[in-house]
Structures are given as structure tokens and as C-alpha cells.
From TrEMBL:
This is Gustatory receptor. Pfam families: 7tm_7 (PF08395). GO terms for biological process: chemosensory behavior; male courtship behavior; sensory perception of taste; signal transduction. GO terms for cellular component: axon; dendrite; neuronal cell body; plasma membrane. The chain crosses the membrane at residues 42-59, 71-94, 126-149, 161-181, 224-248, 260-282, 338-356. The keyword Cell membrane applies. It is found in: Cell membrane. It comes from Anopheles sinensis. Gustatory receptor which mediates acceptance or avoidance behavior, depending on its substrates. Keywords: Cell membrane, Membrane, Receptor, Transducer, Transmembrane, Transmembrane helix. InterPro entries: 7TM_chemorcpt. It is a multi-pass membrane protein. Signal peptide: none annotated.
Length: 368
């Protein structure tokens, strides 16, 4: 049991990168010093990221039609990922207290559910899966860097550590959503058992835990809203650049089979990671909203307990006014519908780019 215990290796790596805020649990000198050191690390990492961002933007604007179209595509993708990481770092530094509240709330939910559960083992172990995914990610990015390396270009600009950090952060968020989903599934089962057994105290306790779970969803939106939005933007930029450089500009550049294979691998990889994250978010929200469906068991198990009936009626009335979703600060809902929005945006941008390309070719033909 324990999401953060299962993620300890991943959390340590993200902590070194300052992607996770250092919680402030008190006003002692030790915690204040830790927070100052965290802010110092954030400042140093931001300076490094901004420096690399400037160099990459300068490189791509200095001579856009570089010799290697593959390098241009990677450069465009990494610039988008760097902007996402910078925005996430600033948001995490601002939401330090929210990260602390979220971690405490998740631990409280898991501990309470484990104590009340009578079915033995509650949660599957995600620790092995998390560590295995980290190894797979490192191998994947190492292969990309090795096969896409371009001679004559600075190696520092081809490392693409920002993409690795972004993928690790996506894994951390993915398993956080899975933890919320498994808590919701257990709460629904516990509520069903309590209603059928006609135990008012247990029903009241489960409803309080559900309120804590809803509060955890709100904290996830606050802590990860910027990253949710950044994932969608990075997905649009990466896939659009791949399709544009590989198909629209295929006559302007020579693209060998190796580069085309690497681009295809990146296309599938990026779509799988971000699409999977959005799919998991939608599934978890369905589980959270299905908790109160257990109250329908009252209709098949009628009771003379008026106190229990009134409690459930109030809970159902309260749920009707609750809009429980993973959102980007209430603007965009994080589920499969966002995938359709991203795909529509990619198609729209490609159509616009194709039109501009046709105009350029027409002007070149007129000049010649």
C-alpha cells in the first residue's frame, strides 16, 4: 500500500530535477531552509532551460532550412517540451502547499480504505511497473539520441533531456490518477456493502472519504493543470512537425529510411503516452462519479432506517450540484474529448501549412 512509497525512485529523480515541489509542513528553520534550497534549484534549472531554449530558437531561426530535416523536426519538438517544463516548474513552485495537501490526502485515503477493507489485499503493486517504465523510457530516448545524432551540430543541443523529464513526469501523473481510480473503486464497493448491511456509521464514513476523494481531484487540477495543458500543446506541435516535415516538405528535403522510421516511432510513442494519459483521466473520472450509484442498491434492499434514507437522499442531492472532472483550471476537460480536439487541431494546422506551402511554390514558379 502507498502510492508515494511505490513511486519513491521516480519521485527521487523528479526531485533532483525540481519537478516536484518541496512540501512545507511547518515553520521550523529546517523546512524553511529546504524550501529556500528548492527555490534555488528551481532558479538554476530555469536558467539552464532558458539558455538552451534561446540557443535552440536562435539555431532554428538563423537558418530554418538546415541540411537535416530530422534535426529541424527534433528541434521544434524539444522547444515545445522545454516550454512545457518551464511552465510546470513555475506552477509547481507556486503550488507548494497544494502538493503537500494532495500527498497527505492520498495517504489518508489509502490508509483509511486499507483499514476498513475486509477483502484482504486491496491494491496491486505498481512499483515494479513504474521502475520498468522508467527503464523503457531511458532506453527509448537513448536509441533516439544515438540514431538521430547529427555530425557538425553541438551534442548539448541534441541530448533532449527535457523530453525525458516530461515523460517521467507524465508517468508520475498517470499512476497518481490510477491511485485515485482504485480508491474510487474500493469506495463504491464499501458503500454498497454498508448500505446492504444497513450500517449508518459505515455509510457516513464512506461518504466522508468520498468527499476527501473529490477534494483530491480538485487538488490534482490545481497542481497539474498547467502540465495537462502543456501535454496537449506539445502533442500538437510534435505530431504537426512530424507530418509537415515528412510529407509536406518531402520535395524540399531528402529524408532517408532511418529518419522516417525514427519519426514514425516518435509519432506512435507520443500519441500513446499522451493519449493514454487522457484515456486514464476519463476512466478515473467515470469511477469517481460512479461511487454514488451504489445508493441505488437501496431500492433492491429496502430498509426502515429513515436516518440512512435521509442521509443518502442528501448525498444524492449534493452530488447533483457537483461537477467532478479533471480540468485545466475549469477551461478544458481532461478526457478522450481532448484527444479529439488535439487531432482536430493537428489537421487544421496541417491544412493551413499546406496552403502556405502551395502559395510559396506558386510564387517561386512565377519568379522562375
Amino acid at each position: 500500500m502507498g502510492l508515494y512509497r511505490e513511486q519513491r525512485v521516480l519521485l527521487a529523480v523528479l526531485g533532483w530535477c525540481s519537478m516536484l515541489a518541496t512540501p512545507i509542513s511547518g515553520g521550523t528553520p529546517t523546512t524553511k531552509l529546504a524550501h529556500r534550497l528548492y527555490c534555488l534549484r528551481v532558479g538554476v534549472i530555469l536558467s539552464v532551460l532558458l539558455t538552451f531554449l534561446y540557443l535552440r530558437v536562435w539555431d532554428i531561426t538563423r537558418d530554418f532550412h538546415l541540411v537535416s530535416v530530422s534535426y529541424v523536426m527534433w528541434l521544434t519538438s524539444v522547444i515545445a517540451e522545454t516550454c512545457v517544463i518551464i511552465s510546470t516548474l513555475l506552477a509547481n513552485a507556486y503550488n507548494v502547499s497544494s502538493f503537500r495537501a494532495l500527498s497527505d490526502l492520498i495517504e489518508h485515503l489509502e490508509r483509511s480504505i486499507e483499514e476498513r477493507n475486509t477483502a484482504g489485499h486491496v491494491y496491486p503493486s505498481y512499483g515494479v511497473a513504474i521502475n520498468a517504465l522508467m527503464v523503457v523510457y531511458l532506453v527509448y530516448h537513448s536509441i533516439l539520441i544515438y540514431f538521430s545524432y547529427q555530425m557538425g551540430i553541438s551534442f548539448a543541443l541534441q541530448i533532449r533531456l527535457e523530453v525525458v523529464i516530461s515523460d517521467f513526469y507524465t508517468v508520475q501523473l498517470l499512476f497518481l490518477l490510477l491511485a485515485i481510480g482504485r480508491c474510487a473503486r474500493q469506495l463504491r464497493r464499501m458503500l454498497q456493502v454498508s448500505i446492504v448491511s444497513n450500517r449508518v456509521s459505515d455509510v457516513c464514513a464512506v461518504l466522508r472519504l468520498r468527499d476527501d476523494l473529490v477534494r483530491a481531484v480538485a487538488l490534482v487540477n490545481r497542481c497539474y493543470g498547467v502540465f495537462f495543458l502543456g501535454c496537449g500543446v506539445a502533442w500538437v506541435v510534435s505530431i504537426t512537425s512530424i507530418l509537415y516535415f515528412d510529407f509536406v516538405l518531402e520535395g524540399a528535403f531528402f529524408l532517408d529510411a532511418r529518419s522516417l522510421g525514427l519519426h514514425t516511432l516518435m509519432f506512435v510513442w507520443k500519441s500513446t503516452i499522451i493519449g493514454g494519459l487522457l484515456m486514464v483521466a476519463g476512466t478515473v473520472m467515470d469511477r469517481v462519479n460512479e461511487i454514488m450509484q451504489a445508493t441505488y442498491r437501496c431500492e433492491t434492499h429496502p430498509s426502515n432506517n429513515r436516518r440512512l434514507t435521509k442521509m443518502l437522499d442528501k448525498a444524492l442531492l449534493k452530488c447533483q450540484f457537483q461537477d467532478i472532472n479533471f480540468t485545466v483550471y475549469g477551461l478544458l476537460t481532461i478526457d478522450n474529448s481532448l484527444s479529439y480536439t488535439v487531432i482536430g487541431s493537428i489537421v487544421t494546422y496541417l491544412v493551413i501549412l499546406v496552403q502556405f506551402r502551395q502559395v510559396e511554390e506558386r510564387i517561386e514558379n512565377m519568379v522562375n
